[in-house]
Design a protein that fits this description.
Radius of gyration: 22 Å
Distance between the termini: 46 Å
Number of helices: 14
Shape: globular
Largest sheet: none
Order of helices and strands: HHHHHHHHHHHHHH
Strand content: under 5%
């Protein structure tokens, strides 16, 4: 074979083998990792109420506890995230809005689970997917497919079936804890939409914005409401630091990564797995039982999450 033909054949072989090698390197579904991140992060959020109540019983009030958790997460992240801080100049107003939204989300959620009925709190908080879908259409101009609508309706129906209890009434604010839960859900939806909108901002900068936002809002609330400094044992304080480091830090990164790489309506549906985790943690960690109705609601939520994953897979998103 002439030399020029051998060179062409060699180049032809290289071009034929390259796609096969790339296929081995890259996963078949590039959305698998974001979906797994949302599911794991939301599940951890579903059980966070238990250590929070233990720390509150040890003398940590809600705002001071939230400040300690997120200040720990922020300080621990800086060695890995400080290089992303100059990104703040790209979207200063949106990042500042994210900081306030995320700050209120977490402070209000902690106050709600510390002082409210956990089932009612979760029900009111997880009206957030409805706000997220509305904001996603208005702000991000996202189009909802039929499968996305069905999955969202299934998930929300499951939430209502799972958490509905005639003893706690209709999902309408009746006390301070209810207002905390409802406002936290709205702020959470706003945070998710802002995270998705700023696709040119790294996950590191967004995570710093969330942690820093909680610290900022807490430092504004403490002097405004003249909250007294808690008197704590070293063990209780060390427990809060550990929860901030191994709980809040990991959960925030997981959720921020998933929300950044998934459409708002899909991440909102997947995040409802927190309700299932909350029910299971109640059954395992308390004397409360999970009723057949709650298990049926959990099944609807899982069905909605499954349809959301299938919709993402079929659309190649």
């Amino acid at each position: 074979m002439p030399a020029n033909l051998r060179k062409r054949a060699g180049r032809h072989k290289i071009r034929n083998t390259r796609p096969a090698n790339l296929h081995k390197i890259h996963p078949a579904n590039p959305r698998l990792l974001p979906v797994a991140s949302i599911l794991l992060g939301a599940s951890l959020w579903g059980v966070i109420w238990y250590p929070l109540r233990l720390l509150e019983a040890g003398g940590f009030s809600g705002v001071w506890l939230t400040l300690t958790l997120y200040a720990t997460a922020l300080a621990a992240s800086l060695p890995f995230t400080w290089r992303a801080l100059p990104e703040f100049t790209r979207r200063p107003w949106l990042l500042l809005l994210l900081m306030f939204a995320a700050g209120w989300t977490n402070i209000a959620f902690v106050e709600a689970v510390l002082h409210g009925n956990i089932l009612r709190v979760l029900l009111l908080f997880y009206l957030s997917p409805l706000w997220a879908v509305i904001m996603g259409r208005i702000v991000l101009h996202e189009t909802l497919s039929r499968n996305a609508l069905v999955s969202l309706l299934l998930a929300m129906s499951g939430a209502l079936v799972m958490l509905w209890d005639i003893r706690i009434g209709v999902p309408w604010p009746r006390d301070t804890a209810d207002w905390f839960a409802l406002s936290a859900g709205f702020a959470f939806a706003l945070s998710n939409v802002l995270v998705r909108k700023m696709d040119d901002i790294s996950v590191q900068m967004k995570s710093v914005g969330v942690w820093g936002g909680v610290v900022l809002v807490a430092l504004l609330i403490i002097p405004l409401l003249q909250l007294e400094t808690p008197h704590l044992t070293q063990g209780i304080f060390a427990g809060a630091v550990a929860l901030g480091l191994f709980g809040i830090l990991i959960m925030t990164v997981l959720v921020q990564y998933g929300v950044t790489h998934l459409p708002v309506h899909r991440s909102a549906v997947l995040a409802l797995i927190e309700l299932v985790a909350g029910a299971l943690s109640q059954q395992l960690l308390t004397d409360e039982t999970v009723s057949l109705r709650e298990w049926a609601g959990g099944a609807l939520i899982l069905a909605g999450a499954y349809l959301s994953i299938r919709a993402a897979s079929r659309a190649g998103l």
